[in-house]
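# nightly structure sweep
# worker-07 picked up a monomer target from the shared queue
# config: single-sequence mode, recycle default, output format = structure tokens
# input follows
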Amino acid sequence: MVKIRLRRVGAKKKPSYRLVVADARAPREGAFIDVIGHYNPLTNPETIVIDEEKAQSWLKQGAQPTATANRLLSKAGITQKPKPAKAAVTQEPEPAKAAVAKEPEPTRASVTKKPKPAKAGVTRKSRPAKASVTKKSKPAKEKT
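# output follows
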């Protein structure tokens, strides 16, 4: 599958992106097929430059834009604005409630939790304190 996605370029902490057409299996900075534009999020307002003919050509051939690429293409006026995905909510009418006499629920006494017993055979041994070690100097050898 061919995707239209962003490819990061630029220095550390100063990102800028190229809008590329690439195989979906290729890594982000890996191989790509075609460059169709660039995007700089650091400018105010952000800079978006896209070659409309190339973008339309790739979209007609079946290239799928990622969510961010689709947002940039719609800002540039190449595609329609992406519609937010809404879950289809269907409300079923509630069945008519018959007058049923309910018995009151019995009250429950408060329950106190007992502490868990320790596992059998597993005990923790404390380590003995380390004794401080001082080096003793060796007596100097006398020359004879």
